[in-house]
Amino acid sequence: MICIITGDIIGSRKIKDSWLLSLKKALKVISGQNDKWEIFRGDSFQIEVEPENAIRTAAYLKACIRINKPADVRMGIGMGQVKIKRKKLSESSGDAFINSGAAFDGLKQAKVNLAIKTDYPEFDEEINVLIKLSLIAMNSWGVVAAEMVKLALENENVLQSELALLSGRTQPLVSAALKRANYSEIMEVDRLYRKKLNQILSK
After folding, report:
1. 0.90 exceeded by the pTM?
2. Disulfide check for 68: which of 19, 129, 134, 189 has CB 3.0–4.6 Å away?
3. Which has the closest alpha carbon to 23: 60, 51, 54, 55?
C-alpha cells in the first residue's frame, strides 16, 4: 500500500509566485532522494509518501505554503495499491491514485481543504472528522505560526530552546506560536491516525 497526496494552491493566480519555491522545497524535503513528486498545470502537485506519514506530511505542506500569506493549499490523501508504476507519478495508476483524486475532487462539496480516502470507509469517516477538527487550527495559521510548525516538523524531538536558536526568535515567542498553532494537538491527531492505520493494516 502507498499514499498519494494530490493538491493545488488556492488562489495561486492572485498571489505572488513565492509559494512555488516554498512548494518545491517542501516536496524535496518530504521525498528526500526519491523524487516521488511532480508539479503540473502550474499550481497542482502530487507526491508519494509512506501511508503512516500522511497527516504529518499534509500539515508540513500546509505550513510551508501558509508562510506565503495569503496562499493556502487543498489536498486529497489517497491510499491503496499501485497497478502501473511509471517514472512520472501522473502516468502511474492504481487505487492509491484513484482514491487521492476522489478525495481531492470531493473537497469543494465537503467545504474542506484536506480529506482522506482509502478502501476502508469506517476508517475514512473517523479520520476525516479528526482532520476537520485539525483544520480549525491549521486554516487560521498566520505566517509566524506556520514558520514555527514548519521548523518543528523539520526538527523532530528538538527542544523549544533549540528551535528558538534555529529561528532567531526567543523561546517564549516560539512557545506562544506553537501553542497558537495547536501544534501539540495536531501531533496527537497524527499519533492517533498512525495507531488506527496500524490496526486496519494488521487485520
Report:
1. yes
2. 19
3. 60
